[in-house]
Structure formats: C-alpha cells, structure tokens
C-alpha cells in the first residue's frame, strides 16, 4: 500500500497532538468521514493523487467537501498539502482510526453473512466476539451470498469461520481423501 510508513508517522503525530488538545474523538469522526468519502469516490481519490491538479484547487475542493472539519484535522490536511503528500490522505485517515481504536481498546468485528443480520443474530455474533476476545467490539456487517449460510467473523488477525460453504468444502476434501469413496 502506498505511503504506509509515512501515513503511520503522520497519524501518530496527529493522534498525539489531538490527545494533547483533548480533541481525539472529534478528529476520529473527521477521519472516518474522510476515509469513507475518499474510498467511496474514485474521482476524488484520483484528484488527490494527480500531480497535474494544483494544490490550491485540491485544498479548495477538500474545503467544499469537508466544510466542518475540526481545526486540527484541517491543519493536518493543510500539512499534507504543503508536504506534497495529499495522495496518502486516505491512508493517514485509516492509520489514525486504527491507532485511535487501539489506544481506546476499541475493536472492530467484521461479520460476513449470507443475509442481513437481525437483532437475534447480532446478539449471537456479539456473544461469540466476547467469547473469542474477552472484550466488546463494534460490529461491521458484510453480506455475501456465496457463503450460503452461517457466518465468518474477523476481529483483527483472528478469524472464526462458521459458514456453510466452509463446511461443504471440508466435506468435499474429506471425500477426495477417502480412498474407499473415490473408488466407487
């Protein structure tokens, strides 16, 4: 990923300053907004990385897109512009979010299901999260019909796969390994 090391350094500095000014939560909200917007718009991402578009136009565009940024977040964006590193804005936002969550012991659990979760299923998933990690987590859902049923739960580096597709693949593999069945 481009500029990851630099993004980590910028994010660490922004978080440190935000904690000093007691505005880490507000900057977190701004970074979430920036990340969602940049990831959701290929045109914006291309504009930020374009060497052809002048920095003054980029700054004006970002001010129009994000008119209510915290002064610390706005200062960080201005610093990225001055240093010619605006193309890593999304990476800085992602790293800031990660560092903020680690600092505040907030975990994000990503659950992939075949259908949208209802309240009852959400409780089952949250119970499994607590069982696996010992802590609560914020739940993010992805719907993927290819898993057929069940769920896949990811929390950081940990993955718990209770999907029907995994069970079917395991069964298929066992049938292939079983010499008696393969001769039939």
Automatic annotation (TrEMBL):
**Keyword Aminoacyl-tRNA synthetase on this protein?**
no
Topological relation to the membrane, as annotated: Peripheral membrane protein
Protein name (Swiss-Prot/TrEMBL): ATP synthase subunit delta
GO terms under cellular component: plasma membrane; proton-transporting ATP synthase complex
- Name the family: Belongs to the ATPase delta chain family.
Question: Pfam families in the record, alphabetically?
Answer: OSCP
Q: Where in the cell is it found?
A: Cell membrane; Membrane
The protein's matches in HAMAP family, at most eight in alphabetical order, are given as:
ATP_synth_delta_bact
Concerning SUPFAM superfamilies, the annotation shows:
N-terminal domain of the delta subunit of the F1F0-ATP synthase
Chain's role:
F(1)F(0) ATP synthase produces ATP from ADP in the presence of a proton or sodium gradient. F-type ATPases consist of two structural domains, F(1) containing the extramembraneous catalytic core and F(0) containing the membrane proton channel, linked together by a central stalk and a peripheral stalk. During catalysis, ATP synthesis in the catalytic domain of F(1) is coupled via a rotary mechanism of the central stalk subunits to proton translocation.
Identify the keywords attached in UniProt to this record, alphabetized: ATP synthesis, Cell membrane, CF(1), Hydrogen ion transport, Ion transport, Membrane, Transport
Q: Which domain of life is it from?
A: Bacteria
Source organism per UniProt: Christiangramia fulva
MF annotations from Gene Ontology: proton-transporting ATP synthase activity, rotational mechanism
NCBIfam families linked to this entry: ATP_synt_delta (TIGR01145)
